[in-house]
């Protein structure tokens, strides 16, 4: 799971940089308004999972949610098929 978390955080950082680059355009600003809050929330979930005790009853559900979110990057060359939910 640690590999998936690192992968997700790296993709979020890549997306943040791409959106910052596109921010100078009207469509870029629209992307920022819609997607940056979502990227922040995914990063928050990843950080919550890292801090969570494995015995926490929410751990399995959060792991599944992160795997589902990770599928949005399934076309990325670093995506690993074993991360699929």
TrEMBL record:
Lineage: Bacteria, Bacillati, Actinomycetota, Actinomycetes, Kitasatosporales
Protein name (Swiss-Prot/TrEMBL): DUF6221 family protein
Organism domain of life: Bacteria
InterPro entries membership: DUF6221
């Amino acid at each position: 799971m640690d590999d998936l978390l690192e992968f997700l955080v790296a993709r979020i950082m890549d997306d943040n940089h791409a959106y910052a680059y596109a921010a100078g355009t009207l469509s870029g600003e629209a992307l920022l308004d819609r997607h940056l809050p979502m990227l922040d929330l995914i990063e928050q979930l990843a950080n919550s999972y890292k801090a969570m005790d494995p015995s926490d009853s929410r751990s399995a559900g959060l792991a599944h949610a992160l795997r589902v979110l990770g599928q949005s990057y399934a076309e990325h060359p670093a995506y690993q098929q074993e991360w699929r939910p």
